[in-house]
Write a structure and sequence with these properties.
six-stranded parallel β-sheet; Rossmann fold; 216 residues; alpha/beta
Length: 216
Amino acid sequence: MQSYKILLADDHALFREGLKRILVEASDLEVIGEVADGLELLKTLSRVNPDMIMLDISMPNIRGIEAIKEIKTIHPDSKILVLTMHRDMEYLHQAIASGAHGYLLKEDADHELFLAIDKVKQGKIYVSPKLSEYLTEDWARIHRGEHEPASETEPLTTREREILKFVAEGKSNKEVASLLNISVRTVEHHRANIMDKLNLKNIAELIKYAIQKGYI
């Protein structure tokens, strides 16, 4: 029987190693690679074609949400299972809306991991039990016309969110330009737009916003 190929993306090496050991115990699963950040993930996907990508939301360089959108362009047939510690419903809504097929909390992974993988393999949407009841409540409220899910509309573009993250991590305009392969002037323009859109007055407020949103 042909093995089901999985690529792991998480910035915690010990977690990746533990997850890999668990997965390889299943005879039909094969871990074909592991990466520590979003940029490395996208580079790796130019060389390999996994059946499933298991990724975290909070990764360096490119966040999981942005990576999901890129994956859907590069490998539209690959399944995406988010494996994260974030219980915030906003992250769940963003992940599913971006194209993820499953959202598994790390705290549930010890007893839900293989169930999540099986459901996603079958083409179904999987959500951790601790979040699924709230997701159902949101769905019911929408269809009753009560209110939208409790998640804010993100005013920033994908590029602006990337730059916000880098700036909040302390990178200079020149470093950001190099990482994203754009000009310093373009970075400066985006920074100004970010500050204006979010009504931020200084870098301290920008960092606070990035932390609250989970960008760093």
